Hints:
By secondary structure, the chain is α/β, with parallel strands linked by helices. The chain folds into two domains: 1-32 and 119-220, Rossmann fold (3-Layer(aba) Sandwich); 37-116, P-loop containing nucleotide triphosphate hydrolases (Rossmann fold, 3-Layer(aba) Sandwich). It contains ten helices and five strands; from the N terminus they run βαβααααβαβαααβα. It has helices at residues 19-28, 36-43, 52-61, 74-81, 87-114, 127-130, 146-157, 161-169, 174-180, 191-219, and strands at 7-13, 33-35, 119-123, 138-143, 183-186. Helix 7 packs across helix 8. The radius of gyration is 19 Å and the shape is globular.
Amino acid sequence: MKKTGVMMVGLCGRSGSGKGYVSAVFASLGIPSVDTDAVYRALTAPAPVPSPCMEALSARFGPEVLSPDNSLNRAAMRRLVFGEGNGENLADLNAISHRFILEKTRQDAEKLYESGFPVVLIDAPVLYESGFDRFCEAVVCVTAPEDVILARIMARDGISREDAEKRLASQIPAEELAARADFTVVNDCSREELERRVRAAADELFRIRAERYEEREADS
């Protein structure tokens, strides 16, 4: 029987929406996730020799972004990409890092598939901004009421409501995320009800995966 590979499903949601908990519920139902933030940290972590990602970044931005332990010098990179007039540097950082993150994410997702998981979530905070959604067969969006999100951010990060509002203002609006996604999990209920909603989405994802697998088998 010919394998078709993993079905990658994007997971998105604004800060404070509860995306982390929803991801954990999906994992308990047999749909694990690959955290692209964790992938980037691994690609830029200390190592005996620079990773291919770090080699590309240092080639573009100079040796100052490469720490003595071959990890990313984040302070040096921040100076180069943030601030007025550094738009091109930020665009290049994203282009380089996203390329390596996507490659490693796809490798990790395929390993999960080989371990027996036909559906894998791609947990990317900037799913659409990075273009990772183009490589996903479906997208799940987690939303929550604005007041709830603001309260969570303030409590979690110890910041003012004004700062929490500024953070949300820099992200894609919830309405747009939901409109672009294939499934929306609304986190405005009890934990038991939220888990029921996630289970319903998981069942549908497994159904879609099974149908597509059968179609590809029939065509092979």
